[in-house]
Design goal:
The chain is mainly alpha-helical. The protein has one domain. Helices cover about 85% and strands about 0% of the residues. The longest helix is centred in the last third of the chain and has 35 residues. The mean pLDDT is about 85.
Length: about 290
């Protein structure tokens, strides 16, 4: 039986911290699209030799991988759009916070999982807390309509790839493979597809500037790539041990880390509402564990 144990909780919380860290790096950059592309290109280069050692995932998971690569392209486009038009403290919680609720609503139909009453309370608690953190200044938020549009669209995209990858990694595990093979190949493919898209959308002079920019920013990309790969590998591994809806909700505690990073590193405001939202998220996490 799939159960959200404390070791799984601890692992997913570490993954949440890593996810917030690489998003803060992208948000703080001067060229968000290029830094996102560079981060995943470096991640692809790092994942490829490890994939050579572990071997490719089995054929049962390949259709899910193909679908996930296409969905992730939409994710990166929406992510960059959100960060270009809004603060990390506004857009990140919306993107990450509303996705678990969508996953929970769809998990019965797509995964055959029915969250318990306590698990539902946890999902709703995390979502409500995230909304409090992300919409701490609703008057200002309404002036960033493009940011909100990208963020809410990305919440749906995140829910979609979470379901697809949850099914994919379970198919891989059922055929005798493991989550690491799946996530490594996913990062290799994503690290090719999105950088090619960014390259194609730039003019020839801009492409020359991209190479100069990449040589300067590769240390940042390497740190972000390591955090990104580790974060998603932990999440997909956890989905082979616990219900996908619970893991998805727990992973979005990354908004707490993002709010702190936004305050300390990007000089964004925190405030009382975000503090209260933090308490609600923690209560939601406890309900998830009890569920």
């Amino acid at each position: 039986m799939l159960t959200l144990t404390w070791p799984v909780v601890a692992a997913v919380l570490v993954g949440a911290l890593l996810h917030a860290a690489w998003n803060a790096l992208v948000k703080s950059s001067g060229d968000k699209a290029l830094d996102t592309a560079l981060l995943h290109m470096v991640g692809s280069a790092a994942a490829l030799p490890v994939l050579w050692l572990t071997g490719l995932p089995g054929p049962d998971s390949l259709p899910f991988l193909a679908a996930s690569v296409g969905i992730h392209l939409g994710y990166y486009i929406a992510l960059v759009g959100a960060y270009q038009h809004g603060e990390l403290g506004l857009t990140y919680p919306i993107m990450r916070g509303f996705a678990p609720l969508l996953v929970a609503l769809a998990s019965g139909s797509f995964l055959g999982e029915s969250p318990s009453v306590a698990a539902w309370a946890g999902v709703i608690g995390v979502t409500a807390g995230v909304a409090m953190v992300g919409l701490a200044h609703p008057g200002e938020a309404l002036h960033h309509r493009k940011a909100l549009l990208y963020a809410f669209a990305n919440a749906g995209i995140i829910a979609l790839y979470t379901l697809v990858d949850g099914l994919g990694v379970r198919a891989e595990a059922a055929s005798g493979g493991n989550a690491l093979r799946y996530v490594l190949l996913l990062f290799v493919l994503n690290g090719i597809a999105y950088p090619l898209l960014v390259w194609w959308r730039r003019t020839p002079p801009a492409r020359a500037e991209m190479l100069v920019y990449a040589r300067r920013r590769w240390p940042m990309a390497a740190m972000g790539a390591a955090a990104s790969i580790a974060s998603y590998a932990i999440a997909l591994w956890a989905m082979t041990r616990a219900p996908v809806a619970s893991v998805a909700a727990l992973r979005e505690t990354s908004v707490l880390f993002a709010a702190v990073m936004g305050t300390l590193l990007l000089k964004e405001r925190f405030g009382l509402q975000r503090a209260l939202g933090t308490v609600v998220i923690v209560a939601g996490v406890m309900a998830l564990r009890l569920g």
